[in-house]
Amino acid sequence: MACPVQFLCRGLRNVGLVLLYYSFSIGITFYNKWLMRGFHYPLFMTLVHLTIIFCLSSLTRRAMQCWTGKSRVILSWSDYLIKVAPTALATALDIGLSNWSLLFITISLYTMTKSTAVLFILFFSLLFKLEEPNPFLIVVVLLISSGLFMFTYESTQFNLEGFVMVLLASFIGGIRWTLTQLLMQKAELGLQNPIDAMYHLQPLMFVGLFPLFLFNEGLSLSTSEKLFRVTELSPLLYSLFTLSIGGSLAFGLGFSEFLLVSRTSSLTLSISGIFKEVCTLLLASALMGDKMSLLNWLGFTVCLCGISLHVGLKTYYSKNKVPTLRQLNSRSPELELPLLQQNRDNAEDSAADGYSDEDEEQEITLH
């Protein structure tokens, strides 16, 4: 039996990992919202983020290869274009639309609407038989849907265009995470490590999002004095610097989620995600001036009850049966990629409880 000092050290480590995850996840949401107050090119910003994530994941793969002495997986062109492309396209649209919606809506409405992604994840999980149906899922759907309705009803800061964008992003996010789960369950591809998955996804995501960027922002950006028509060097360097910070935060979010799940469990990430939503809304009200009525807060509470019920059901069923299907994580924040690596440090503790946490995705909630 572990001594009290070991329990204390493990508890402090877990708290530190949760705080690290909160810092990147909440930080990138507020940072992107702040940046787009003066930089109205969310799709270009997303393309820059994808480029930075690809470069950092490449460096990380190189470091891992030098550390372990084992070469990293490289997919063939046929597997890359046929099996990875659908996931990359869905991921690019999810992230691009999410960032785009921040031009029009508040952080509180964004956070609330993105929380409904669990509905679409459930739908596509059932469609692709990644999750087994049960009657309690009807209650989950009703709670989340009614919570969203109460949150948006007579909201003083409601914007239909932004709301439709983020709701569409949530719908595509359901497709995204389902396809990503299927992709990473294919052991022959060797993409179980999130760093390898990020490395392979970013180029196709860039290619998939680039036509939408050209159509919507290409002409205006080419004539913008912030980038291509600068008269002085300092504004250009400032724009590139601020965009680079966002890309680094996006990569840090994915890496912090990877550490949190691999060192604790997927359940810890799910529960942490619920409290993260509360922290985000409180900070949005205090720092950004988001106005929320009593009905809005009640709707948010009802929605969180539905998400909490879903997490509880997943935990209950994982305890009482041997998992045969890797189920999707109910929390998909702003980020990112599935994580199918379990915590080796806690393997003995999980076995003593009679079950092991299911393989779970890591979300790089690139918001």
TrEMBL record:
Location relative to the cell: Membrane
Compositionally biased intervals (Acidic residues): 348-367
Top-level taxon in the UniProt lineage: Eukaryota
Keywords: Membrane, Transmembrane, Transmembrane helix
Topology term for the membrane: Multi-pass membrane protein
Primary location: membrane
Residue ranges, annotated region (Disordered): 346-367
Annotated InterPro entries: Sugar_P_trans_dom, TPT_transporter
TM annotation in the entry: 12-32, 38-59, 80-97, 103-128, 135-153, 159-179, 199-216, 236-255, 267-288, 294-313
Protein name listed in UniProt: Sugar phosphate transporter domain-containing protein
